[in-house]
Write a structure and sequence with these properties.
1089 residues; 10-stranded mixed β-sheet; Vacuolar protein sorting-associated protein 13B; alpha+beta; 38% strand; 14 helices
């Protein structure tokens, strides 16, 4: 049996005169996985919450011709299915059930072989006093076919699902019998079947929240007769195959989990009620199942995700107290509500701003004027709320919350979360001080630590899979109650590996890291407290900032790309200051560099400009000075330029002359400071040459092909083929990067000096072919190729390890593609790209929308199923804490694109575009020219770099929009005609003039050649314009004929290229005539019909 194609198949087995039918189902899960299910015709499954024993009776004719009756016994577990019975419908005639462990069987249920769908209620005898009635439903898959199957489903009569936070007591009344009993129904979205329910009898349900409360006054009548009315009214679709998906583990989408607080899921549900506390909903439990679902739906759920115990106020009245981490049902709000926090230091409950819920059905489409005292919260939205704790300046705290609302299952889900979440992706425990102060943008030499500020800690994410919230921000003493509402406040954070408050421990804290949306990534240098093996007294920690649905996520990770590394080889501690010309947006502090140590640093300019991708980004200069003492105040040094590599000499008052060496290493600026006269170490001058690497390779031809083995598994089909001719790779050390160091730095940095290489890749020719051209009605056999080939140029193969400069110039001159990379050698034989330069000669690009959509759809089948991908424990822990979008954005911010220079030389393209999905529109040989694209230094995200590239080339295409419109075939390609006439006129005058400079004979020849070129270009342009117009009209006429066979036949005809001019004219005019004739016939046919 072949399983290449999906579907349902049947295979029969002959055994002792009987025929056994096996149903085989083949389902394609993705491009590389299939699911195969082999089963019999009889499938038995149970939705019951208790185990039952099953007895089925089989009737068949034995080998001796006598009727044989056989019984089969099985135990059917809760919410499970039995292995299917390989029996025909005529063989399985009866069944009966009983409770597990009991002796009495139920009455026999007769299975009709001719009926496809029917149901009955079975009373299951039970040894205890409870009465168990269940539905027995018989369904048929693919009836009246060879692969039909019978599904026997057992399910309860009624199922209760309560969405309340706590269990609820229900009173079940049988008024006709004068009976009443109570049952306990769990909450939190759990389901439980009702007990002691009898069919064809109306039961009345009343609800009681707690034992000390009274039951509800209104009763809800239920009966088995309701299911038919609800099914008819709701018209719920569904097939019997959906039932099997529950038991085979291939259900479509996972259900949301109570309390349905996931904000990322898109919901189009409407709030069902907001003026009544509770709603009872009756519905069909599952498609094709007779069970009636009874749901208890509160009007709203209020979830406190914050770390605070909160109070809810409506006016001055306390209406609810909700502890941290709890979910409760709020009362129906009649007016705006407030949240409050009890602060024991002041013995007061401090409140937030008033929040008013608005509903889509009652609120107007426009809002009234802004009311600062009340903020409105839509059914789908979020607002921010702040609560200030404390009364005395310098001892106040600010709590920030995000209050959001979504609608799930008709319930309004209100969530109160801490505004800021901090996640520690490092292996260290990190302490932090969140603070808030008045914004005074200025440069300060030193940050004054506050001894009263609060300290919190955040554990690594692998140790604790819980979120860590910033519970409050300390208001600094410069904020007074009088000016707090007027001045703008700034958030910042101090980080440390060892907690300390004041005194010498104050040096263990980092400089303040600003918390702003326009500073998405910062490299924070956190002191170690002691030097490690690399002489670093700091660790570079990347702090990323993202906002998602009202919540701020701060992520701490080890920085793989520190911006600046400072090696201080002087015996004195120094201060580093940035030369800022514009007014800064927040406070900036000088960097303290201890004596004989190394630290990490990041300039204000680098923080504020990330992730901008500017054409040329120059860093500001820096200044240095020796840290002043009480007796002596030192002056700042001269400016130090850090944009260029090299060694500079500055004078520091209080110390002397200092050599400043600047080196750029893959996005990191290394600044080395050494005093004058420090003895150097002798090094081997041939060390760099001994470790250098020379690599050279010549490939005459390289082909890459993409095959499709999925559409037709028996034959492999080639889709596209990329062919590259004469590829030359040349890699040598680059001398310009190996600049000589001053004597002061020998032995200090030579051991860590990086080796740089230049990798040059030349490709003489490149072509991307559409291999489906001969198999489908695609228009272009080639997708990308060189514009004009120089056939006379010959490439000489490389025989020596070191190519001469003449050979390199020849390769560079004749190459179609040139790629030049500057690489730096890292540890473990890894290379980082520092510079990238790309150049391409004029090329031709052919784009067809039908081919692009076909390849896109086909490539999606190549992707593996993400459900089977395993992740590490750390990745799983991060996924549980962070939303997917936040995690991806944080990774992009953490790992930027780092290049010293990126250059893409001017690109010239002749573009042909055919769009034929709806209407045939074509633009052939449209000239597009793009200017050079240069950026450097580049330190940005991949998304920002792609955006800069897209904007650059989109602007270039926009400036050539006139040529695009003028090249449309449906207009006759006037731009192509003008271009041909212009070339002919230019040759008419240029060629005689060139001949005139060489003599009379050349002049006569030039006149002849110029006249010939003039006539040839005008004739070619005119015929091309007429041909394009006729082709465009003919193709659109073929589409309007609504005859697929005629359209395909015409496309095949167009692919037959003419051998001469006369045949080409005959084909073009005849195709246009046939298209017009087909259009007339189609109109006449419509009139007749």
């Amino acid at each position: 049996m072949c399983i290449d194609n999906g579907g349902t198949f049947i295979r029969t087995i002959q055994y002792k005169g009987r025929t056994a039918s096996l149903i085989i189902k083949v389902q394609q899960l993705n491009g590389v996985q299939k699911q195969i299910i082999i089963c019999g015709r009889q499938i038995v499954c149970s939705y019951l919450s208790e185990s039952i024993e099953l007895k089925v009776i089989q009737h068949y004719i034995g080998q001796d011709g006598q009727a044989v009756v056989k019984e089969h016994f099985d135990c059917l577990a809760p919410k499970q299915k039995l292995p299917s019975y390989v029996l025909e419908n005529s063989e399985l005639t009866e069944l009966s059930v009983k409770a597990k462990g009991d002796e009495d069987w139920s009455r026999d249920v007769t299975l009709e072989p001719k009926h496809t769908e029917y149901s009955t209620v079975i009373q299951v005898p039970s040894s205890n006093s409870s009465i168990i009635y269940v539905w027995c439903m018989v369904l048929t898959l693919e009836p009246n076919s060879q692969v039909q199957q019978r599904i026997i489903v057992f399910s309860p009569l009624f199922i209760m699902r309560s969405h309340l936070p706590d269990p609820i007591i229900i009173h079940l009344e049988k008024r006709s019998l004068g009976l009443n009993e109570t049952q306990l129904i769990p909450g939190r979205g759990q389901e439980k079947s009702l007990q002691n329910i009898e069919p064809d009898l109306t039961h009345h349900l009343t609800f009681q929240a707690r034992e000390e409360d009274d039951p509800s006054e209104c009763a809800v009548p239920i009966s088995t007769a309701l299911i038919k009315q609800i099914t008819t009214k709701s018209n719920t679709g569904g097939t019997a195959s959906e039932i099997l998906s529950d038991f085979y583990g291939c259900s479509s989408s996972p259900q949301s989990v109570w309390p349905y607080s996931k904000k990322d899921c898109v919901s189009s549900e409407q709030l069902t009620q907001w003026d009544s506390p509770m709603r009872v909903k009756l519905s069909v439990w599952k498609p094709c199942v007779k069970t009636l679902l009874i749901e208890l739906l509160p009007w709203a759920l209020l979830i406190n995700h914050s770390k605070w115990d909160l109070w809810l106020f409506e006016g001055e009245k306390i209406i609810l107290q909700i502890p941290a981490g709890k979910t409760m049902i709020p009362p129906n709000f009649q007016e705006a509500f407030q949240i409050g926090i009890y602060w024991p230091n002041t013995n007061t409950v401090h409140k937030s701003v008033a929040i008013k819920l608005v509903h889509n059905m009652t609120s107007p489409k426009w809002k009234d004027g802004d009311n600062e005292e009340v903020v409105t919260l839509d059914e789908e939205g979020f607002v921010e709320a702040e609560i200030r704790l404390g009364a005395f300046p310098g001892h106040q705290k600010l709590c920030q919350f995000c209050i959001s609302s979504i609608v799930q299952r008709g319930i309004q889900i209100l969530q109160i979360e801490d505004k800021s979440i901090i996640v520690n992706n490092t292996p260290y425990q990190i302490y932090y001080k969140p603070q808030l102060s008045v914004m005074k943008p200025q440069l300060k030499e030193e940050y004054l630590h506050s001894p009263d500020s609060s300290t919190f800690s955040v554990c690594p994410v692998t140790d604790s899979a819980k979120t860590s919230s910033i519970v409050f921000w300390d208001l600094m003493s410069d904020i007074s109650p009088s000016n707090s509402e007027v001045v703008s406040l700034k958030k910042f954070m101090l980080l440390s590996f060892k907690p300390g408050l004041s005194g010498p421990n104050a040096l263990l804290w980092s400089l303040p890291a600003i918390i702003r949306q326009d500073c998405p990534r910062q490299s924070v240098a956190i002191p170690n407290g002691e030097e490690n093996e690399n002489d670093f007294c700091t660790r570079a920690i990347a702090l990323t900032y993202q906002e998602h649905l009202g919540v701020t996520y701060l992520t701490l990770s080890e920085d793989p790309s520190p911006r600046i590394i400072i090696h201080n080889r002087c015996p004195v501690s120094l201060l580093l200051k940035e030369n800022i010309k514009d007014t800064p947006r927040f406070d900036i502090y000088c960097k303290r560099v201890p004596a004989d140590s190394s630290v990490h640093h990041e300039l204000y300019h680098q923080v504020s400009s990330y992730p901008d991708c500017k054409t040329k980004d120059l860093l500001p200069s820096i200044l240095l000075k020796v840290i002043s003492t009480e007796e002596l105040t030192n002056e700042w040094s001269d400016f130090v330029d850090i944009n260029n590599q090299g060694t500079q000499i500055i004078f520091l008052t209080g110390f002397g002359y200092v050599y400043v060496d600047i080196a750029h290493q893959c996005g990191t600026i290394v600044i080395t400071l050494a005093p004058e006269g420090r003895p150097g170490h002798q090094i081997n001058p041939n060390r760099a040459q001994e470790q250098s690497l020379v690599f050279q390779m010549f490939v005459s031809q390289l082909s890459l092909a993409v095959y499709d083995d999925i559409t037709n598994p028996r034959t492999s089909s080639e889709l596209v083929q990329l062919t590259l001719d004469n590829i030359y790779l040349h890699m040598v050390p680059v001398a310009s990067y190996l600049r000589p160091l001053s004597h002061e730095f020998h032995g200090e940095t030579t051991s860590n000096l990086q080796q740089f290489y230049t990798l040059q890749i030349f490709c003489r020719d490149l072509q991307l072919d559409n291999q489906l051209y001969n198999k489908s009605n695609f228009h272009f056999p080639v997708l990308l190729c060189q514009g004009e080939k120089n056939e006379s140029a010959q490439w000489t193969k490389v025989h020596n390890l070191v190519a001469s400069s003449k050979d390199l110039e020849e390769y560079s001159k004749n190459a179609f593609l040139k790629l030049c990379l500057t690489l730096s050698e890292e540890q473990n034989l890894l290379f980082h790209v520092n510079d990238l330069s790309f150049e391409m000669k004029p090329a031709r690009l052919y784009v067809e929308d039908t081919f692009v959509y076909y390849i896109k759809t086909l490539f999606e089948t190549y992707l593996p199923d993400s459900r089977g991908v395993c992740h590490s424990a750390k990745a799983n822990a991060v996924n549980q804490i962070l939303p997917e979008r936040v995690r991806q954005h944080a990774n992009a911010l953490l790992n930027p694109v780092k290049l010293r220079k990126l250059a893409i030389q001017p690109v010239s393209l002749l573009v042909s575009i055919h769009a034929s999905l709806k209407l045939y529109i074509a633009s052939d040989h449209t000239p597009l020219s793009f200017s050079v694209f240069e950026r450097g230094p580049v330190f940005t995200t991949a998304r920002q770099l792609i955006h800069a590239l897209a904007m650059h080339y989109a602007a270039g295409a926009l400036f050539r929009a006139g040529w695009v419109v003028g090249s449309l075939e449906i207009l006759g390609s006037p731009a192509s005609l003008v271009r041909s006439i212009g070339n002919g006129i230019a040759d008419f005058f240029r060629l005689p003039y060139e001949g005139l400079t060489r003599g009379p004979g050349a002049f006569v020849s030039g006149v002849s050649r110029g006249t010939t070129s003039f006539v040839k270009h005008i004739s070619k342009g005119t015929l091309t314009s007429i041909t394009n117009l006729a082709t465009s009209l003919a193709r659109n006429m073929d589409r309007l004929s609504l005859d697929e066979e005629h359209y395909n036949r015409q496309e095949e005809w167009r692919r037959q290229l003419p051998e001469n001019l006369g045949e080409g004219l005959r084909q073009g005019l005849s195709r246009l005539g046939i298209s017009l004739l087909a259009r007339d016939m189609e109109q006449n046919w419509r009139k007749d019909t």
